[in-house]
From TrEMBL:
Cofactor(s), by name: pyridoxal 5'-phosphate
Matching InterPro entries: Cys/Met-Metab_PyrdxlP-dep_enz (IPR000277), PyrdxlP-dep_Trfase (IPR015424), PyrdxlP-dep_Trfase_major (IPR015421), PyrdxlP-dep_Trfase_small (IPR015422)
Residues bearing PTM N6-(pyridoxal phosphate)lysine: K246
Family under the similarity heading: Belongs to the trans-sulfuration enzymes family.
Keyword tRNA-binding: no
Protein name (database record): Methionine gamma-lyase
Top-level lineage group: Eukaryota
Pfam families for the chain: Cys_Met_Meta_PP
Keywords assigned: Pyridoxal phosphate
Gene Ontology MF terms in the entry: catalytic activity
Length: 448
């Protein structure tokens, strides 16, 4: 299909009328821009095109149609050849492009500073679609050992069985190991998370991108843990994926994902003959896209408070003698690296971990925090306005076997906390302190 340049195309407000043969001057098509200097993602979002409602509403209308009409029979053929597309307000079918979903995609592209983006039905569908587009049967990838359990299972079990695509797992902080794992000419993708789930290791995106690009490898980065905080493509990565279900949604009520990257890649994923998004069909519902588009404007404020509270709690918990893992702490091995890459004003992330060493002690702590002091909820996921807690080894990383967990640095008692912003900071801190005192375990607060 012809490229549509999703993010770079600016539509006029003019609607199609009695003829499909529209003059080009009716539409403004932006030239492909140089990669702009960009610091604050909130400013980039504010500069993105705002879509008004059909009757002049300040919010866009929801285009709930599955299929779209044309005024002239010849137009349909021209749409299927790619001659006419969303850049000129022509839509075929909502599995392909939907106006409401397309508008949300523009915002995700602005957030990550990429040419284009496409929003999907889930984070895993975004990840799998990208990897299947970049890798064919017999292909090879290199990936971090420390990954979300679902992603690890996809790479370890599903892709080798179903697609003959294999992955070599590495310590992403060992750059020599990364270099050695890349088979030049065969390896297609280097895949990692900016901040690893759940161990909170920080990837050196610029150096890893340099290593990969020197060998002709595409860099795909999962930035779910750190929207606003880190901008992987500004640091050298090629493609960014998100589980929008987390921070970007913020309500723990929507499952969604996104692929952000070059327009050429996104368009290839929408190709009628070879596109993974087009043919596998992980389509986002237009009503979901509308809901998400209403939440993005206050993402920056939410992220700042998530990050601020996580930093305060991590600092105080460390002083109490807890074994805290948080990249905002100066003794974290990746603190200086994250500080050098992070966008100013957004802190060091909204997630911290407490290593209780055993699952039994982890469960005791979480039980007290939820059922005795109401500090948070025992639940997976992250980015909610309430604090969510889980013992990663037996939940979101349960797909990894014992050896894989050890290699990834996941302790049996590792409690991952996605710090929320409900209530006041001091109110929630007092609840946390109360639970710690109730533990009545002197070894819990032993100095490290």
């Amino acid at each position: 299909m012809a490229e549509t340049g999703i993010h770079n195309l600016v539509f006029s407000g003019k609607k199609r009328t009695g003829s499909d043969d529209i003059d080009r001057e009716d539409f403004i098509v932006a030239k492909k821009p140089m990669k702009p200097m960009w610091e604050d993602p909130a400013a980039a979002l504010a500069n993105a095109r705002h879509e008004f409602g059909e009757h002049g509403g300040v919010n866009m209308s929801i285009e709930a149609s599955a299929t779209f009409t044309v005024m002239e029979p010849e137009t349909m053929r021209r749409m299927f050849t790619g001659e006419l597309g969303p850049d000129r307000d022509f839509f075929i079918y909502s599995r392909h492009f939907n106006p409401t979903v397309l508008n949300l995609s523009r915002h995700l592209a602005a957030l990550e500073g990429t040419e284009a983006a496409y929003c999907t039905a889930s984070g895993m569908s975004a990840i799998s679609s990208v990897l299947l587009q970049l890798c064919s049967s017999g292909g090879h990838m290199v990936a971090s050992r420390a990954l979300y359990g679902g992603t690890h299972a996809l790479l370890t079990h599903f892709l080798p069985r179903a697609c003959n695509i294999t992955t070599t797992f590495v310590d992403i902080s060992d750059h020599d190991m990364v270099k050695e794992a890349i088979a030049e000419g065969r390896t297609k993708v280097l895949y990692f998370e900016t901040v690893s789930n759940p161990t909170l290791m920080v990837a050196n995106v610029p150096e890893l991108s340099r290593i990969a690009h020197d060998k002709g490898v595409t860099v795909v980065v999962d930035n779910t843990f750190s929207p606003m905080v880190l901008a992987p493509t500004r640091l050298g990565a090629d493609v960014v994926v998100h589980s929008i279900s987390k921070y970007i949604s913020g309500g723990a009520d929507i499952i969604a994902g996104a692929v952000c990257g070059p327009a050429s890649l996104v368009n290839s994923m929408m190709d009628l003959q070879q596109g993974t998004l087009m043919l596998l069909g992980p389509t986002m519902n237009a009503k979901v896209a509308f809901e998400l588009s209403e939440r993005i404007p206050h993402l920056s404020m939410r992220m700042k408070e998530h990050c601020n509270r996580a930093f305060v709690y991590a600092t105080r918990m460390k002083k109490l003698g807890l074994k805290v893992i948080y990249p905002g702490l100066q003794d974290h091995p990746d603190h200086d690296l994250l500080k050098s890459m992070a966008n100013k004003e957004y802190g060091y992330g909204g997630i911290l971990c407490v290593d209780m060493e055993t699952e039994e002690r982890a469960n005791r702590l979480m039980n007290l925090l939820q059922n005795y002091t109401q500090f948070g909820f025992m639940a997976v996921s992250l980015g909610y306005y309430e604090t969510l807690m889980s013992c990663s080894g037996s939940s979101t990383s349960s797909e990894l076997n014992t050896e894989e967990k050890e290699l990834a640095g996941i302790s049996p008692g590792l409690v991952r906390m996605s710090i929320g912003y409900s209530g006041t900071l001091e109110q929630k801190w007092s609840q946390l302190e109360k639970a710690l005192s109730r533990m009545q375990d002197s070894s819990l607060l032993s100095k490290n």
